Hints:
The chain has helices spanning 3-22, 26-37, 42-67, 72-93, 111-132, 148-165, 170-180, 185-205, 215-235, 241-264, and strands at residues 100-104, 107-110. The protein has 10 helices and 2 strands. A two-stranded antiparallel sheet has the order 1-2. The longest helix is centred in the N-terminal third of the chain and has 26 residues, at 42-67. It is mainly alpha-helical.
Amino acid sequence: MELxxxxxxxxxxxxxxxxxxxxxxxxxxxxxxLTYLFHINxxxxxxxxxxxxxxxxxxxxxxxxxxGLIEYKLAVVFAIPAFLAVYVVRKYLxxxxxxxxxxxxxxxxxxxxxxxxxxxxxxxxxATSMIKKKKIIESNYxxxxxxxxxxxxxxxxxxxxxxxxxxxxxxxxxxxxxxxxKIEMKKAVATTLFIIAIKSLVGFLGxxxxxxxxxxxxxxxTTISISGIFFGHYLSSYIKGSNLKKSFGWMxxxxxxxxxxxxxx
Length: 265
């Protein structure tokens, strides 16, 4: 095993620790690790990320289910358009994108480059929100009539993003549930994890038949990540994930600019 692969498996552990500490952010780390440390092409990387994030989120969902924190009706209304969108993107739209999209001054923008650049842009938005936003203020969480049309629209948008770049989308879903739909924070986080688990695994199913899966490697990477989740849960007793969010945001921002440099220069 090469040294860079050892760092990659350490990265798999960090993916899990991040999920355990913060309840999200795993895919933002997983995709660069799979792409640049294991030299897996971005199409396959996004598929692997869906499996890793979906499986890992399922572990957290079981715990939240026992605590009764999941808003199932809201989750189903949100998840159905989300996983339909991600399945259609992974199964039908992604294979239609040509490997060479456009050539600019002898620089060929390939499908792989386009995916990683788009991913980096999303990372920048995510990092900015983590660095600037101190806390989502919880107030006036009285039962209200949910705007289900808005839920469906948000679900489709999240599904499209997940389908293209393989992210869980928790940094978008949680604010949407809290600020737009007035869901209590703890229930929003739990419901988000449930939604991510469903749509990520359904999205991965859309890759079966289109993408060659190295199951041996994927299961090892996922198992290490899951062990990291339990370690992260242990650390969360001593370290608050909210205190790490700003530092994590700066790290994500650095990785995003590194990806842009690697892909474009």
